[in-house]
Amino acid sequence: NPGSLGHPELCMRPCIYFATGGCSNGELCEYCHMGHPKRPVHLDKRHREMLRGMTVKDTAALLHPVVRCKVEATLHCSSVVDELLDELARKCGCDAASREPVTANRQQRMLVTTLRSMSLRSL
């Protein structure tokens, strides 16, 4: 069904009706009909405030390596996707070659840990 495309990194949230065996939309359902072993991770208030308080460059330097890693693991990174990620990094003023997020303190390291556990769709 359309909601299961890209499972687990890019799919929609799970269908609550399918889990109980009663999804009447079947193959037309917009929600995922595949197993999701854990509850999706979301940023808490402290993490959202921290991101809001960061400059675009600092946010990009933090997010870019995490997103690149997820994309490479999920999409097996085509050259087009690689170029797009590099262009985004250049426009934001961060190092496109960096594979590790730039973290200045413990709170940012905790934020990176949370970001790594989120799905690519959530990021």
Structural overview:
The protein is mainly alpha-helical and 123 residues long. It is 47% helix and 0% strand. The chain has helices at 16-19, 45-52, 56-75, 79-92, 106-117. The radius of gyration is 17 Å and the shape is globular. The relative contact order is 0.18.
Give keywords.
123 residues; mainly alpha; 5 helices
Using only C-alpha atoms, the radius of gyration works out to 17 Å
Helical/strand content category: mainly alpha
Encode the helix/strand succession as letters: HHHHH
Q: What about the largest sheet?
A: none
What's the total helix number?
Answer: 5
| Helical content (DSSP H or I, runs of 4+) | 40-55%
End-to-end Cα distance: 23 Å
Q: What number is the mean pLDDT? A: 83
The geometry reads as globular
- Count of DSSP strands: 0
Low-confidence stretches: none
Tell me the strand percentage band: under 5%
Short summary:
With 123 residues, the protein is an all-alpha fold. It has five helices and no strands.
Q: Strands, helices and their partners?
A:
Layout lengths: L15 H4 L25 H8 L3 H20 L3 H14 L13 H12 L6
Helix pairs in contact: 3-4, 3-5
